[in-house]
Design brief:
Elements: H1 4-18, H2 28-35, H3 39-43, H4 49-59, H5 76-91, H6 97-106, H7 111-135, H8 141-158, H9 165-191
Helix pairs in contact: 1-2, 1-4, 4-7, 5-8, 5-9, 7-8, 8-9
């Protein structure tokens, strides 16, 4: 496994090389040369340039322990608004947006790259968001996570409209309506005291 300092150098190198949008032109030789490490160092941790690209992108949303960062301050609505805002900033960051758009285009015709994208980038992020919904008591947390993230990706990919603060609030409202009634119902049911058996008259 690559050391933290080596990983940082490799991630910076691959993002710089991929910034032109030419994903298919990336090579282990080119990444190693840009990072100042040997190819053997790369192959001890990664099997292909695609693996490195997606690990580098995922690292931008991870903490020091490698866990995907999802807001969890205790208030779900505020957490989701923060998550959506952070996701939008990530997608529209000039430093990585050309790369993200190039990846999105490439995975339409490259099955191997699509598999790498799904397993190394999308799945860890998706599961972390679904876990936050599960903690909040949503009946189908995976559906809530897909609706939350899917609408963002659709708007970004097709450029159907701007990501205004009003849109963020409205989008979170729509997603909240899916699970809040069920979550509230479950909470109320759990809090409701069980009916006590009727008192019986003492035997005469």
């Amino acid at each position: 496994m690559a050391r933290t300092q080596t990983r940082s150098k490799v991630y910076a190198a691959v993002l710089a090389l991929a910034g032109t949008g030419r994903i298919g032109a990336l090579s282990m030789e080119g990444i190693a040369g840009r990072a100042g490490v040997s190819k053997q160092t790369l192959y001890r941790t990664w099997s292909s340039p695609g693996d490195i690209v997606f690990d580098a992108l995922l690292a931008r949303s991870q903490d020091a322990d490698g866990s995907v960062l999802v807001p969890d301050a205790g208030e779900l609505r505020a957490d989701l608004e923060s998550l959506v805002t952070d996701t939008v900033h990530e997608l529209t960051d000039p430093a990585v947006e050309p790369l993200l758009r190039a990846v999105t285009a490439s995975i339409q015709t490259d099955q191997q790259l699509a598999d790498q994208y799904r397993e190394r980038l999308w799945r860890p992020q998706f599961e972390a968001v679904a876990e936050r919904f599960q903690k909040a008591g949503f009946p189908v947390p995976e559906l809530a996570a897909e609706l939350l993230l899917g609408a963002i990706l659709h708007r970004w990919l097709l450029r159907t409209g701007p990501f205004t603060s009003e849109w963020v609030v409205g989008h979170v409202d729509q997603v909240m309506r899916i699970g809040i009634p069920a979550a509230a119902s479950n909470t109320a049911a759990a809090a409701k005291p069980s009916a006590e058996p009727a008192a019986t008259s003492p035997a005469e």
